[in-house]
Predict the 3D structure of the following.
Amino acid sequence: MRAVRLSGLVSAGLLGLLTAQAHAQVPTQPQGQPQAQPPMQAQDPEAADPRRNQAAKLAGLAGFVNLECPGLRSDPARLKQTVEALGVDPASLETGDLHLTATRYIAAYQKDVAANCRKAEATFGPQGSILPGLIVPR
């Protein structure tokens, strides 16, 4: 298994997601979002916070796109901004349970690479329905 650093991912795309959620009251599980199995619950009570889980999920999606989607990449600044808007310190995604959770989401998205790359672009790409600009062309 490849080692994945999420820092570049975290910095770029999360701001847009948080801004979009704050202004549009977007549900946390939209229909067009890439499908992923939720990771196993961590023992840390803070990991149960839905905003922390959402930040890990976005970081995992960004990591997945950077690893598996040939024509796409995440925008690190947008990710960082979105994570911060969720009230999560982007550095907390680099280690510990949030890092493990993000890594589990990467593995879940990898179960259907082609479909999840398409869904990531439709949902988070330049014309995305949820958080435009989190995912951009390479």
